[in-house]
Amino acid sequence: MDFNSLIGNSKIKEYLTNVALTNQNLHSYIFAGKDGIGKKLFAMNFAKMLLCLSENKPCNTCKSCVSFDGGNHTDFMLINADDGKSIKIEQIRLMQEKVVEKPIVSAKKVYIINDAELMTKEAQNCLLKTLEEPPEYVIIILIVSNESKLLNTVKSRCVKIEFSKLTNEEINSYLESHGMDKLSTSMLEQCDGSLKMALNIGNKAQEYQAIEKIINDLNKVDITKIWNSSEILYKSQDEILDFLDYINVILYNKLLKNDKMMYINSIKVVEQTKKNLLANANYNMCIDNLLLKLWEEFNEQSNRS
Question: Between 20 and 30 A from 18 (CA), which of 130, 159, 269, 282?
Fold first, then answer.
């Protein structure tokens, strides 16, 4: 994969390509933006270009490119949260041990810290030593979705590149080109410019359509039928927060078309359900209560006028 196959953020694509081709790179960058918009893919492609041994970067054939594609480049390191929760000081210390070693294959060494906001405070303070005086051959890229969690001292030593959300047109064009159906307007709103979310929704379009039908049926059938037809919510504990967000997208769209208090109240019901679930309340009871309160909001006589 190269920059040409990535969608969105064309100006950043041009800038990074120019940096790699002209050897005008800086020592530390922050790639900031919403989760799922391609920051890591951009960083990986940028790293490959920086390490490439040919003038036409990336050539995909030199020793560096072949090693990079094979995942065993000696002058490259990708750091992730090992436990999915935090990047610890030991991981940064290991990186620093490698940083002082001169490159073997390429003229540079590239280090990418993915989800860098997950670094502990101790890890960030440790990283400062390298950011303040990096060897001339080292480039460090911090990928962040929540920049506020980085220490100001870390941010001040990096050049920030802000990635934009993908447009609805870019997302649907990508899905179509990969043999997937376009997403509806509500589904695209749920994605909020994230291709990662779009791919997840695209693979579960039937589930999202079923949820939309549940909401549309609230004022058409009795509560027992709503409960019986809502299996998707009862069996989707791992994805329920995404599904609840989608319910609120649907409710908000209804509010825009018809300014009724029941839609505002229903959105509050969904938000309270999310809080209850995050507080480890009984899952099935939370869904029972959610559907009952939504049904009541939609079927109050005062709201029908």
Answer: 130
List, in order, residues 6 or more apart from 90 with CB less than 8 Å away.
none
* Cα 75 to Cα 47: distance, rounded to the nearest angstrom: 10
Q: Are 51 and 8 within 8 A, CB to CB? A: no
Banded pLDDT at 1 (limits 50, 70, 90)? low
Regarding whether 130 and 74 lie in a shared domain, the answer is yes
The per-residue pLDDT for range 65-75, each reduced to its tens digit, is 999 999 999 99
Q: Which two tokens stand for residue 10?
A: 């064309």
State the average pLDDT for the chain.
93
Domain end call among 132, 162, 192 = 162
Facing residues of 144 across strands? 32
Q: Which residue has the tokens 């209560």?
A: 289
Q: Report how far residue 121's alpha carbon sits from residue 183's, in angstroms, rounded to the nearest whole number.
A: 40
Based on the number of CB atoms within 10 Å of its own CB, is 263 exposed (0-12), middle (13-18) or buried (19 or more)? buried
Radius of gyration of the chain (CA): 24
Kindly report, residue by residue over 281-300, the tens digit of the pLDDT: 999 999 999 999 999 999 98
| Other CB atoms within 10 Å distance of the CB of residue 1 | 11
SS3 216: helix
Residue 4 banded pLDDT, cuts 50, 70, 90: confident
Domain residues for the domain of 291 are: 204-304
